[in-house]
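Me: I'm a chemist; would you kindly supply a protein sequence with its structure tokens?

Assistant:
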Amino acid sequence: MTFSIEPATAPGVTELLRLSDEFAFSLYPADSCYLLDVSELTAPGVTVVVARSGDDAVGVGALVERGDGSAELKRMFVRSDARGRGIASGILTTLEGVARGHSIATLQLETGPLQPEAIALYEKHGYRRIPAFGQYVGDDFSVCMAKTLG
């Protein structure tokens, strides 16, 4: 398994994003799905990490820098047939390394209450629940979390 920084337009990534969209929309109403599209993932200050098994893209995650020493994790997704193998942890660890390298002190994220596996993953990696922030304020389908990087 490899974890590397790649463009959002790299082979297999568009399909991962499509599957991620499909998954999110199967759980939550459309107005509670805060998914960045390819154009947003190719913007300055966004780093995309792709997990590959050989040439096959099996997972993705993104770091969106805010320019104030903080960043948000977005688009964390692992293909259903690749789950349970530590891929999400590898993506998360890689994104945290990128954040440290960019002098990011605080990482925040939003996930949903119908994703207990995601919440458990983030808690295992030291993320704690915080009050909703930004566009997530007032959305009952949002669970917001943060971690201070050392």
Strands lie at 2-5, 46-53, 56-65, 70-78, 106-111, 128-130, 143-148. DSSP finds four helices and seven strands in the chain.
